[in-house]
Design goal:
10% helix, eight-stranded antiparallel barrel, 292 residues, 2 helices, mainly beta, rod-shaped
Length: 292
Amino acid sequence: MAGCDCGAGASVRTSDMPSTFVELRSGSSVWNPMRSLAAWSALVVLIAGAGREAHARPWVNPAEVGSAPDEPPTTAVVAQPPPEIDPPPVRHDEDRDRWRRWRLTGAIGVRFGSFRVNGASSGTAIPFHVDLGVRKDRLVLYASYDVLGIDLDVPDGAQVTARGATTVDLGDGSGLVQRVGANARYGFARAGEHDGGFELWAEGGIGVQHVRWDAGGVWTRPDIALGLGGTILGLGKHEHGGFSLGLRIMLAPRSDVADGAPAVCGGPCDRATAPAGFDRSFLFDMTVPFGR
């Protein structure tokens, strides 16, 4: 073996050692470079594995999660608000109270036709009328007020007997007629929707006519009114309005036909009968209903 300097901490190398092997002596310790490389590689693998584990595990805020000290922490779950849901569309059946609830109703209109008094015609009569009442679904209950001027076609010198008095001159037959009445109307057919439509109706009522003659005297008599017509009506949530056309027939007793009157012929006939005891008036009606 070749001589060497074997002092403390000196490098020892012999001729039979490979060039890659160097031993350093520090006391009794020997440094091997191959072993050191293996140790560094293992350390790098451990650090990389710890980094992947820390990345996969979510961070938990201890202030937000109240876990017991001996329980593993749990991930906080944030509650999401429920999704907005559109309200269901309003069904027509739920809104049909536009027909079915009670409504205050009024109307203004005019009538055209013939108005008769004791068989004498007034010519073309044009009564103006106002109505006020209530309605619900197909039923309408209302009171009415009519006013019209009349001019009867009476013969010159004609006379009439007043109640409890002697005969007096009828005058020229002109006067003013006022009527108040109560009526009930029912819609027997309807075509439309929840907010309006067209309705066919029939009605009946009773009333009182009060005639004041220009030449003097008054006359009061009851009557019966029958009607048939149709109405176009629009219904809002609070208001309603429309237009109505109809035909009204009024029956009122005559004062010039007594019970047991003799049979006569008022025109060409094959058998005489007693005179009709009622006046018949036919009036065409145009009305604008409205209300709440």
